[in-house]
Design a protein that fits this description.
heterodimer; A: about 210 residues; alpha+beta; outer membrane lipoprotein receptor (LolB), chain A; 5 helices; 12 strands; B: alpha+beta; 12-stranded antiparallel β-sheet
């Protein structure tokens, strides 16, 4: 009986450990104010992106690879090169899409694209932290700062259950965004080889 | 009379088994396709993940290129179970049409008890299916429903090693699905 209890307690250990890894932060914590200050001073950011979508019923993951370039204010090129070409161009108020070499018009999908724009830009420049449409929680594991966001609006809840954004504590560099669907499925977006405040050609936001 | 019924049921079940050589996605296999769903003027592009389970259940999930789940459902023992669907795809007319089209695309109707292989033509749920074979490979299936009902055609483009494209088109109604398997690295 004692052995069974020991095995049971040992099996619970990983859950306690993972819970202890992340410590809750107050919204006024100096670590967060520091992060906000650094992000506010960031003029541009670019790097590689790797998106990994896991399906509960498949062994295979769907992996998309590409690049992103962001420049203040509200200019973004989000480009997947594989497995299909998929480019989102955001230039202030305009938003364009290209798929497999063809620019697409999405009459009925504007709402989804608006949400995508708000989420991507908000995660990159950190503005999502103070977005009133989300309930926020902050935590740290010592090396990273994590912001967990849950949409308040019914329209948003249809697409996203939760967004987890992770920044490196050192340098406030964006590391990972995890999107959790209402169905519970997760999509991880890893930001690699990130460089900040570098010269960017304006034409990358203007055309495909 | 009993003997006659027994012989007849054996004939019907053996005919149904004959159609089961048409494996678009073999049992136990999984695949991810680039998918385009064209619904009344709107094209939704994404990926369709499919698993043909060992018990012949068919689990499908359609996601956007950004990873959002747009539709997830499972066909098991002759019924679809909706796990999740966005509003645009869960309508009273769209959802059943989409569900039936997925069974047609993957020729999964052959695992339904209502499927009967009559040789040159098949029947499924009182609808006639007209298959066309080239070099022993299924290249198209036309569904003929009751009079005045739109007809659907499924087409398979075969490559050297696998099916390179599967598509279904509705005649007289703006609804189509195009699937292309993702190339493995």
């Amino acid at each position: 009986m004692q052995r069974v209890i020991t095995i049971f307690l040992l099996s619970l250990l990983p859950f306690f450990l993972s819970a202890q890894d992340w410590k809750t932060l107050n919204a006024t914590d100096p670590m967060l104010t520091g992060l906000k200050t650094t992000l506010a001073g960031m003029k541009s950011i670019k790097g590689d992106i790797q998106q990994e979508k896991s399906f509960a019923f498949l062994t295979e993951k769907l992996i998309s690879k590409g690049v992103f370039i962001y420049q203040k204010e509200s200019k973004l090129r989000w480009q997947f090169n594989e497995p299909i070409e998929y480019i989102i161009l955001i230039n202030e108020n305009s938003m364009r899409l290209k798929e497999d070499g063809e620019e697409k018009k999405y009459k009925g999908m504007n709402q989804i694209l608006r949400q995508v724009k708000e989420i991507i830009l908000g995660c990159i420049d950190g503005s999502i932290m103070s977005n009133a449409n989300y309930k926020t929680a902050f935590s740290t594991n010592g090396t990273n700062i994590r912001i967990q966001l849950q949409p308040k609006e019914k329209n948003l809840k249809e697409f996203i259950q939760q967004i987890d954004v992770e920044f490196a504590k050192e340098g406030s560099v964006l590391k990972k965004v995890t999107l959790t669907d209402p169905s519970g499925d997760m999509t991880d977006i890893f930001f690699l080889n990130v460089k900040t405040n570098q010269q960017t050609d304006a034409s990358v936001f203007a055309d495909f | 009379m009993r003997a006659f019924l027994l012989i007849f049921s054996l004939l019907v079940s053996s005919a149904a088994v004959a159609g089961q050589g048409l494996e678009i996605l073999p049992r136990g296999k999984e695949a991810i396709y680039k998918a385009e769903i064209k619904v009344t003027g709107t094209t939704i592009t994404g990926f369709l993940a499919v698993h043909h389970k060992r018990n012949n259940a068919l689990h499908v999930q359609f996601t956007s290129p950004m990873g959002n789940n747009l539709l997830e459902m499972e066909w098991k023992r002759g019924r679809w179970k909706k796990i999740y669907a966005i509003k645009k795809l869960s309508g009273r007319h769209i959802y059943p049409m989409l569900a039936e089209d997925l069974l047609l695309l993957f020729a999964h109707y052959q695992y339904d008890k209502d499927f009967v292989d009559l040789g040159d033509e098949w029947t499924w749920k009182k609808k006639k299916l007209l298959p066309v074979f080239e070099d022993g490979k299924l290249v198209s299936v036309k569904m003929v429903t009751r009079r005045h009902h739109p007809t659907r055609t499924v087409k398979y483009e075969h490559g050297a090693e696998r099916i390179e494209e599967l598509n279904i088109d509705h005649q007289g109604f703006p609804f189509a699905i195009v699937l292309e398997p993702l190339k493995k690295k």
